[in-house]
Amino acid sequence: MPEPPKLPLFADADETVQAIHQGDVDAVVVMRALEGPQVILLHGAEEPYRVLVERMSDGALTAGPDGVILYVNDRLCELTGYPSGRLVGRDLVSLFDGEPPKLVPEVTVEASLRRNGDDAMPVAVWSRPISIADTTATLVRLTDLSIHRRAEQIAAAERFARSVLEQATEAVVVLSPDGHITHASWRAEQLAEQPPVGRMFSEAFPLLAQSSEDVGMLARFSAESLDAMLATKPFHGVEVRLRGERNGKSAFLLSAGPLFDDNRINVGSIVTLTDMSERKRAEEQQTMMVAELNHRVKNILAIVQSVAAQTVRSSGSLENFAYAFSGRLKALAIAHDILTQTRWIGIGLSELLAAVLAPYRSADKTRVAISGPAILLPARVVVPLSMVLHELATNAAKYGSLSGRRGNVDITWQLADGADQAIELTWQERSGPKVRRTASAGFGTRLIERVVSHDLDGRTAIDFDPDGVRCTLSFAVRGQAGPSVTTLGSAVE
Amino acid sequence: MTEYDGYSLRLYVAGQTPKSIAAVANLKKICEQHLPGRYEIEIVDLMKDPALAVRHQIVAIPTLIRQLPEPLKRIIGDLSNTERVLVGLDIRPN
User: Fold this and answer.
1) Domain residue limits, chain B
2) Cα A427 to Cα A412: distance, rounded to the nearest angstrom
3) Tens-place pLDDT, residues A67-113
4) What is the mean pLDDT of chain B?
5) Which CATH superfamily is A315-492 part of?
6) C-alpha–C-alpha distance, residues A137 and A457, integer Å
7) Which residues of chain A have pLDDT under 70?
8) Are A29 and B28 in contact (CB < 8 Å)?
9) Where in chain A is the domain with CATH 3.30.450.20?
10) Which of A43, A51, A332, B5 has the fewest CB atoms within 10 Å of its CB?
11) Chain B residue numbers touching A6 (CB-CB < 8 A)
12) Which of A354, A439, A443 shows the shortest CA–CA distance to A394?
């Protein structure tokens, strides 16, 4: 039980009254019956000032004219990490690290506040003179800048990271140092079968190593150590596949790059999964194309060689050879032009006929009539077929219905019965001069027969009917390479 | 109880009132000048804990109490009159 308050001694009471009377004091302690002792301030004007300083969320102190700290509020003790007893009586400048702030009334300056057992804190310092009794003291207010700064920095970094991720077309995730996913780009969210943020990387993106070297490399790591490794070590370009139904067919390139802060401490990493499929497909296609091209060039050279050889044999003179050979070569060139224009995909049969026979149709299209269902020819039949047509046309122009002013050719075709990948084409000459199969009906027919059987894998029959030469070709358009026949409707030219 | 042969002084203040602030400043100045290395000051803020006033029967603020050396001595006011303080605390001027 505490002792009841004693009355002050008479002498003391006298002194107290005198002091109050003289204005030496500005607060008194009053004993209230129920509440106990209470401090009453004698000057009302001080109250707002006191409240201002005490209640401030900023650190505040009062310094005398000589720079000695007279008073500190609680917040300043918090900021510095020192109790008030260790601060009062010190020089104001001793609170600061490095350059102490130059105090200019009502002006805010920055300084570095020393702290007990902690790093210095950036602070904003504001000051104002105040008068205490007869002296001018300075009220100094200190605001913690570090929280603001840190928060701002964090916010700015967050915004930046988010915008980078939003822009990313790849699957990108950010890992914390312990391997948890903290951010994911849109594509990453798509790839993961469950929402990835918050999960360990190995959980969100279960991997299978793709190539045999990589299998060894990845297999060495358990899921946990893979997570740890991705979060802290650089890791470049391992081909992987993702487990799971959705992504079974896609190949990805896995890369990871750790992130470090100013103190070289690992703060996580950025992991990307680059979709290899497109690239792979493009690579594969390119390889295929190069191989195909090679094959075709070899073909062409072989054809040219054979054409040259045959032409030599059937040409009486060099002049004849030159003429015949160049004609055939031109036909070849046209065929290749067509192929190039259609990017070696193929061409419709009517288009091909129109192109090869164009010289004979320029004046009058009906002279060479073309009619039949629209069929897309694969690239590999274009050259041989062109050559056959060229021969037929050349013969017709030399001896047949294209040789005079009258006479025409009907070219018709149809898909062979029962086999929808084979074409039967008929070349019918009419109203031309009577034709006889000559002794060397010669190279033309032989070439036709050879090309159809060898290069088109088909059959041909050439009939030297007196009314007009009739040639029937039948050949398959479905092969190992090239697309199958597509009928697009009928076309009449 | 340890023997302390310096001055043990306790200053009762009321937060940031002008006289409280002045008393603190003045006391430190006087001690530095006249009792260098021979004093210890304890500041008691009665705004924070008024009950502490009971121990030394504090009524007026600021009040300075000399606890050591004994006997107890009391000075009321902001201690701006150095002479009066030295006399009151029985300090030989330096």
Assistant:
1) 7-60+78-89
2) 7
3) 899 888 888 998 899 998 899 989 999 999 988 899 988 888 989 99
4) 90
5) Histidine kinase-like ATPase, C-terminal domain (3.30.565.10)
6) 111
7) 1-14, 21, 43-57, 132-134, 147-150, 153, 209-224, 244-249, 261-263, 344, 417-420, 435-443, 478-493
8) no
9) 10-145, 150-275
10) B5
11) 57
12) A443
Chain A residues lying within 8 Å of B57, measured CB to CB: 5-6, 8, 12
Suggest the residue from B21, B41, B79 to mutate for an interface test with chain A (most A CBs closer than 10 A). Answer: B21
Q: What kind of fold does domain A10-145 have according to CATH?
A: Beta-Lactamase (3.30.450)
8 Å CB contact between A469 and A463: yes
The partner residues of A123 in beta bridges, in order of sequence, read A111, A144
- The residue of chain A nearest to residue B44, with distances taken between CA atoms, is A85
Task: Tell me what pLDDT residue A490 has.
Answer: 33
Q: Where in chain A is the domain with CATH 3.30.565.10?
A: 315-492
Which candidate from A28, A88, A137 shows the least CB-CB separation from B59? Answer: A28
Q: List the beta bridge partners of residue A350.
A: none
A39/B47 Cβ within 8 A: yes
CATH fold for the domain made of B7-60+78-89: Glutaredoxin (3.40.30)
Greatest CA span in chain A, whole angstroms?
160
Q: Which CATH architecture has domain A150-275?
A: 2-Layer Sandwich (3.30)
Q: Tell which of A21, A29, A38, A49 to mutate to test the B interface (max B CBs under 10 Å).
A: A29
| Whether A88 and B43 lie within 8 Å, measured CB to CB | yes
The one-letter code for the residue type at A6 is K
Instruction: DSSP letter for B76, please.
Output: E
User: Could you report the per-residue pLDDT of A384-433, keeping only the tens digit for each?
Assistant: 898 899 889 988 888 888 888 888 999 999 987 665 578 999 999 998 88
